[in-house]
Target: Dihydroneopterin triphosphate 2'-epimerase
Amino acid sequence: MPRLEPGMARIRVKDLRLRTYIGIKEEEILNKQDVLINLTILYPAQDAVQGNDIDQALNYRTITKAVIRHVEENRFALLERLTQEILDLVMANPDVRYAEVEVDKLHALRFAESVSITLAGHR
Model:
């Protein structure tokens, strides 16, 4: 993850728990499963800091709502694909300089709490 430079802000959305169709086995195709999503977003925040105005800030609520809608309304065979599509949604905002998305598929392995994939993008 890039170092946080002066004037930049780091937004973290932690433990966003959603339900979606994820997997390749028949039971996974037929039944929604819980996934846990963590987002890290870096953007230049000087104007928001000085102006104290939501219109000058990156609206993390709007981004999160788009992620929720996309995850809950689609089906995914692979965790990698789901993670990439979320990253693409976040990076679609032109103010985002760097984003990191981690998606945990809960109880994917017998003796593990979860299996996760992390992908990052920058401009």
In short: Helices lie at 26-30, 46-51, 60-73, 79-91. The radius of gyration is 16 Å. The beta strands are 8-22, 33-44, 75-76, 98-106, 114-122. The longest strand covers residues 8-22.
